[in-house]
Amino acid sequence: MEKMKIEDFINELKEALEIENEDQEITLETNLKELEEYDSLSVLSIIAMIDKNFDKQIPSADFIKITTVSGLMDLIGKEHFV
Amino acid sequence: MNSIFSLKNKNILITGASSGIGRQCAIIFSQLGANVILIARSKERLKQTFDKLEKGNHLTISQDITEYNKLEEVVRCSVEKVGKISGFVHSAGIEMTLPLRSMQPSYYENIFSVNVIAGFELAKIISKKKYINKDGASFVFISSVMGILGQSGKVGYCSSKGALISGTKAMALELAKKNIRVNCVLPGVVETEMSNKMFENLPEESKKTIMDMHPLGLGKPNDIAHACTYLLSDAARWITGTNLIVDGGYSAK
Predict the structure, then answer these.
(1) Nearest to B200 among A40, A41, A59 (CB)
(2) How far apart are CA B182 and CA B204, in angstroms?
């Protein structure tokens, strides 16, 4: 599987969260849970996005333990990113 | 059991028979005197259901029902080994909770192929003269209250269950002259492997909301199997093209 650029991953994440404001900055340190767009359905969207891009099924029990974008990338596996 | 609700001597084909509602239907029907034909993918899990059946002339066939071109052979083989079909329960189904924005065409196709198309294809084949019991038959599609009510994240699931309801009505009209009755059962949330899996993917507060939506609490597979029994039995002789809601009060709100 091809490695993904962090920038592309953040764009995928924005899409899953339906963040349409291009100026809204998401960084590795952004706390996902503090985002206005974060809710139970967006969690499912993010999990589906990860499944689609990384062929990895993240249980939501694991997902809710993480807070930041960086934490999410650890969960997916840092080796998947460049 | 000698009662109008008996299923004695009825040969009933069940999809999704290896788990949840389908499995419980098989067990209950066998206890009421039916011969059951169990269809599901997993041979091993089918055997687990088979081992729980009351004695009878039962059959298990391991088959992925979305391989549509194999279905005629499944029915032919069932009729040869068990006899002509007098009942069909389509309980195979998949659940998906995903917001509209994340849905893909292939997800809809996957849900509809199992939940709807495979069931309708089997109904088509079973209703052929050479396979169907000459004194009539009863088909039951396991839909869901989600077929008439919405819930966010459930566009795929709700629409597939709704398709069963409207398809049932059309089929009931078409098959009435063959004395085949066609109905839907609409369960609320029943404690099965499928709903447990769904619960695992939901946060704690959503679980509580779902529980609270059922005034009589969550259902058991038996609750649905009993409703199916009624529709399959001669007691439901005059019932066709309808929905039987079995949801612990969910849709009364």
Answers:
(1) A59
(2) 38
Catalytic residue check, B157: yes
Exposure pattern of B108-125 as b/e (b: 16+ CB <10 Å)? eebbbbbbbbbbbbbbeb
The one-letter code for the residue type at B200 is: E
| Signed CA dihedral, B150, B142, B92, B223: sign only | positive
Q: Token digits for B91?
A: 């309980």
Q: What pLDDT score was predicted for residue B202?
A: 73
pTM for the whole structure:
0.91
Cα–Cα distance between B60 and B46 in angstroms, integer?
Answer: 7
Return the structure tokens found at A71: 């934490």
Q: What is the CA radius of gyration of chain B?
A: 17
Question: Does the model's ipTM exceed the 0.90 cut?
Answer: no
The position carrying tokens 């549509």 is B68
- Quick count: other Cβ atoms within 10 Å of Cβ B211? 12
Element (H, E) at B168: helix B155-175
Q: Hey, is B36 helix, strand or coil?
A: strand
Q: What share of chain A is helix, strand, coil (3-state, %, to 5)?
A: 55, 5, 40
Positive/negative CA dihedral, B63, B64, B67, B68: positive
Select from B106, B191, B205, B118 the least CA-distant residue to B156.
B106
Strand order in the sheet with B11-15: B59-62, B35-40, B11-15, B87-90, B137-142, B180-187, B243-246
- Comparing alpha-carbon positions, the chain B residue that sits nearest to A44 is B98
Does A48 contact chain B (CB < 8 Å)? yes
**pLDDT, tens digit (0-9, with 9 covering 90-100), for B39-55:** 999 999 999 999 999 99
From B68, B107, B108, B157, the catalytic residue: B157
